Amino acid sequence: MTDTAKAIFITGGGSGIGQATAKLFAARGWRVGLADVNTAGLAATAAMLPAGMVETYTMDVRDREAWVAHLDAFTATTGGRLDVLFNNAGIGTGGPIADMSFDDLDRVVAINLVGVLNGAKIGYPYLARTPGSCLLNTASASAIYGSSGLPVYSATKFGVRALTEALDGEWYGAGIKVRDLVPSFIDTPLLATPAGNSNYSIKQVVTNAGLELTNVDAVAQAAWDAVHGDKVHTYVGKTADRMAFAARWMPGSLRKRMRRGTIGSAQ
């Protein structure tokens, strides 16, 4: 592998969307940097990729010093280039805000929002030295209309969406594209999260309601399309498409749905 190969650094690379995206980009000749708190997950993902295409880093996105150290280490293997930074790491802790502990509330905000802000701010100089680079963030259909039962999660994903829009303008002059994925119900481990006060997981609630789950490989392809396209927001899954349509043309129906306590979406 030469230093001219394109390079992507993926947080949350040990499972789910991050893992699927790593497989797709590596299969298309990209060098991949994987970061995750889950060392076993990192090893499992790395084992799925072609030899010599991947570097792994055990990292918490809340740790700013680790961000710098690992981006330095990865770009040292790529000839200095970073074509895509994929801010994908997130957690799905949910439940009514009145029932959430402050520890859980702080953790969701710190990982899902501040972690993404860390990646953007720290990643900027690495992206700025690579022509045509892209910051890709994972938002959620919960960023289309706030999801009853997931208020803190929704708030963080609205923040990710707003950051994407703001940086799309702010970084335009630097030649850095900024995009996000807006997935609905993706079949990842995050759907094992309890749905509010229910004894059921979000996945069980979704399937019992007759809603579809989108295969994680479809999200990986959406990530590829987002990086190479011009849309700021890339909606993934039928539920996300329907919510985007309803938010624009039938906001009252979404409001009634949330008042019935229906889970809106989860990454």
CATH architecture: 3-Layer(aba) Sandwich
- The CATH topology corresponds to Rossmann fold
Tell me how many strands there are: 7
Which sequence of SSEs, written as H and E, runs from N to C?
EHEHEHEHEHEHHEHH
* Largest sheet properties: 7 strands, parallel
Helix content: 40-55%
Q: Unreliable runs, pLDDT <50, ≥5 residues?
A: 262-267
**Overall pLDDT level:** 86
H/I helix tally: 9
Determine the N-to-C terminus distance: 33 Å
Structural class: alpha/beta
Please state the CA-atom Rg, rounded to the nearest Å: 18 Å
Number of domains: 1
Shape by Cα distribution: globular
CATH homology-level superfamily: NAD(P)-binding Rossmann-like Domain
* Proportion of residues in extended strands: 5-15%
Please identify the top-level CATH class.
Alpha Beta
- Sheet with most strands: strand arrangement: 3-2-1-4-5-6-7
Kindly describe this structure.
With 267 residues, this protein is of the alpha/beta class. It has one domain (7-259): 3-Layer(aba) Sandwich (Rossmann fold), CATH 3.40.50.720. Helices cover 46% and strands 13% of the residues. The protein has nine helices and seven strands; from the N terminus they run E-H-E-H-E-H-E-H-E-H-E-H-H-E-H-H. The protein has helices at residues 16-27, 39-47, 64-76, 102-128, 151-170, 202-208, 216-228, 238-249, 251-259, and strands spanning 7-11, 31-36, 54-58, 84-87, 134-138, 177-183, 233-236. A seven-stranded parallel sheet has the order 3-2-1-4-5-6-7, with helices on both faces. Strand 5 (134-138), helix 5 (151-170) and strand 6 form a beta-alpha-beta unit. Helix 4 (102-128) runs parallel beside helix 5 (151-170). The radius of gyration is 18 Å and the shape is globular.
